Amino acid sequence: MSADIAHELHGERERERVATATTSARVRIVLAMGPATAAAGVVWAVVQPWRLTLLHPHGQGFWWLVAEPPLYLVLVGVLFRVLIARALVRDMEDAGR
Amino acid sequence: MIVAGIEPEAEMVHWWFATGILVLGLLFLAETIVGPEVWARRPWRRYLWPGTMFLLGLLLWPVMALYTNSMIHMVAHGSWAQVLMLSGGAELGVVRGKLHSQYWRLTSAGALLVSGTAFLVHEQNGWFFARAAFLHHALGWTLILAAVFPLVQAIRPRSIVAASGFAMTFFVVAVLLYCDRDSAAILGHFSQFAGVPHR
After folding, report:
1. Distance from CA of B41 to the nearest CA of A (A)
2. Interface test with B, best of A92, A93, A97 (most B CBs within 10 A)
3. In CA terms, which of A46, B31, B45, B193 is 20 to 30 Å from B74?
4. Which residues of A touch B15 (CB under 8 A)?
5. B2 or B4, which is more confident?
6. Where are the domains of chain A?
7. Is the pLDDT of residue B80 over 50?
8. pTM of the full predicted structure?
9. Which residues in chain B have Cβ-Cβ distances shorter than 8 Å to A34?
10. Are the beta carbons of A88 and B22 separated by less than 8 Å?
11. Interface check A36 vs B, CB under 8 A
């Protein structure tokens, strides 16, 4: 094998390695976005438990029992992970092939 | 009076819109991370954020009709409804292939500018009157400054910085809206005219 071809092959492999690493970093970020959002909701609920009226429902009206902002974050995070992130990662992997 | 009795509090409406805006932020950020080609691989996904934006605009109409604290509130909510629907509608037209110019992204810049101005104009109190007043000022200036991101995107559609800035704007706006309370102190300040403070 000539030195030129060997050098070219090495460069190609290096480019592939960088592309794979970039894709896997992006995959990890996309997969982490939902859980990170849900975790923010959990932290918020722990830091400000009074924002969750479900923890002290006695005497609360209908809207106050519906309005649970920390739970909204958890819900959005879970739904994003299940409905968006999974399909997105599959498409990223397909596009990377 | 009956309507006032069964209406949710204004702060709850802010939290619901915060949730919608958080969804928008996640979608924008995900699209920025994976790139427009991967994002468009499934047709339904292309309609997600323009559809969500249009829906938020649509949902602002009942807010305009029911939360009529003052004329300026009605004008502010009505203008938000219009610009969000215009921006969402234009982007729906772009993803559908009915509209072709990259400059339709200017409708998003217009939406942020009009929304920011409406926030500032309809907040009659100073920054430290109460938390709601502080947040309205902060939201107004955030949106006005952030209008630069879609403006850059209209000129340079592939700009990662502009796309990331646009996405992050929605996270900031969501956090500010989640912080809203109808009457609460801000950094130790609370006007005696602002009612009974909550946590």
Report:
1. 7
2. A92
3. B193
4. 67, 69, 72
5. B4
6. 3-96
7. yes
8. 0.87
9. 26
10. no
11. no
Query: What is the number of alpha carbons within 13 Å of residue A52 lying toward its C-beta?
Result: 16
Residue B193 has pLDDT above 70, yes or no: no
The residue type of B92 is: L
The contacts of residue B8 (CB under 8 Å, 6+ apart) are A63, A66, A67
Q: Convert the pLDDT of each residue in A48-62 to its tens digit.
A: 998 999 888 888 888
Instruction: Tell me what the pLDDT averaged over chain B comes to.
Output: 89
Report the distance separating Cα B15 and Cα A70, nearest Å: 10
Question: Which residue among A26, A34, A67 places its CB closest to the CB of B34?
Answer: A26
- Whether A76 sits inside 8 A of B26 (CB atoms) is yes
